[in-house]
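Hey,
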Amino acid sequence: MPVLESLNHPLKTMQTSHSRHFARSLLRLLCAVLLLSCGGFSLADSDHDRARHAREAGEVLPLRSILERVRKEVPGEVLDVELDRDKDDDEVRWIYKIKVLRKGGALVKLKIDARTGHMISRKIKD
């Protein structure tokens, strides 16, 4: 039997105290990470719900029809699509933000009015 275990030695007490403190800190960190990750899912769900309701209400065109138009005007590989709400002074409108990689390597960033399908802006980065 080790001497430190048989005695109530201060070094043993200090090691146990540090271990408990470390375990509590680790548990707090784990709880914080779990809470933050769950919050992200609920935000993503609410964004998805808002977009779905906008589609059902006829406020936005289906993504499929938007992408058909984009592929005709800007050939290439669609890398990313976002549906955002853009707030101007009095009006709120839905905007599709689309990134397309062209054959030569240029990245094209598009903003499209989600209700009408009209292109608002096009930026090309070589």
